[in-house]
Amino acid sequence: MGEHSRIVPLPILVEDTSETPTRSPPTRAEPYRFRRVSHTEFKPGRVHRTKSFSLQGDRTEKLWQLMATYLAGDVQSIQRSIVNHIEYTLARTRYNFDKLGAYQATALSVRDRLIEAWNDTQQYFYNEDPKRVYYLSLEFLVGRTLQNALCNLDLEEGYRKALYELGFSLEELYDEEGDAALGNGGLGRLAACFMDSLATLNYPAWGYGIRYEYGMFEQRIDDQGYQAEQPDYWLNFGNPWEIARLDVLFPVRFGGAVTRTSFYGKKTRCVWECDETVRAMAHDVPIPGYDTYNTINIRLWSAKPAKEFDLSKFNKGDYLQAIEARQNAENISRVLYPNDNVSAGKELRLRQQYFFVSATIQDILRRFFKQDRRSISQLPHKAAIQLNDTHPSLAIPELQRILMDEEGLEWADAWDLVSRTFAYTNHTVLPEAIEKWSVDLLSQLLPRHMSIIYEINFRLMEDVEKMWPHNWDMMSKQSLIEESFPKQVRVTCCECCSPSSPWL
Question: What's the predicted TM-score (pTM) here?
Fold first, then answer.
């Protein structure tokens, strides 16, 4: 994942009230501990001398005092937390306290504890500034979260006793939770297990995916005994584990054309003028590690329209056209794996995959540039982007585009950073399982990326010719462009970018 620096686990700090912080083995054995504030420079008693908080004064000092401890884990505190969510979050009364309400309140109570650890983990990573791993996967088969979270937080027994006194069985509440329809097979299960392992081993990591409204399908057996497929709307009662980030929005562009612009009469840069824009909004799902305060997260993107509503069309009575842009945008994150046997399905899949990687790369670079005086040349030292199968492979030409068109790098410099930043997990070598995209479709939806893929392929063919002179069969096998009718792009850009590739 880059030749100059490794991703290493960080020791997570626990209770320490001394002026000089010390590192101790991570544990959650005690139910009530001081929060990990002393490992940062933003510590109570010296906040006013910290540059970032120089204007905050007494207000910041008060906030540190109020947030100085984690929520308690004793039975009475757990019960109080659950009942508070019943009354104040769910707006239920003591006479309307059923299993569903108990599950929702319990999940929200556990989430409160996850958020505490997650916030401190992110602040710790920001201060330590380690190299981070970003895991991109179109699927995350996380299953049911409640039992996993309680086990990792070492709070299962406390919640069992607390709920028993309230008249509920913890095992019954486990059954109230539905599976998150964010994956459907080994690819998604691998991704979920990978995130659990990263959290447990204290690695600084982020997962990225799509927040689908519907899974593949829900299996039902009809009255005649036949299998029937129904939409799997897993968000029927909301998702208590996610945190909607209304302020984390990124534009994602489609279509248009590419023009070349000259700067100061010397350099020329490509300018992509799109004709459609949608927005990606973030939803964070905390992932706690086992027996550690380290809590990372999966960031899921949902598609939102750039323009919510066309009032002029609505006033003319054209009600469907008034919300057409909204529907088209939201379709991107509506279904896991839309049927690609029809042209509209193929286009939606391509939109879905690019939407996912574009928002993710923007978010990674935003976090990268949050550190002061950081040069883009440091990217491979601070970020390793792991692609789970070929679905996120458009992230490679996307980063190349940003480095050239927005950061002003030349091709060779940008490609060097890209090839040292990405890594790839291969799941199959069967030809029928490798994705291919029509050149015409890619040129229509992502014209700038198509030109970058052509350039990647041109340089790749030059290297292949040097290694196997006049071997046209080898060139045909290695080419990213399949000379069929119609022409297809083989989604294997990631293989060409792997540091282990022989031509890099």
Answer: 0.87
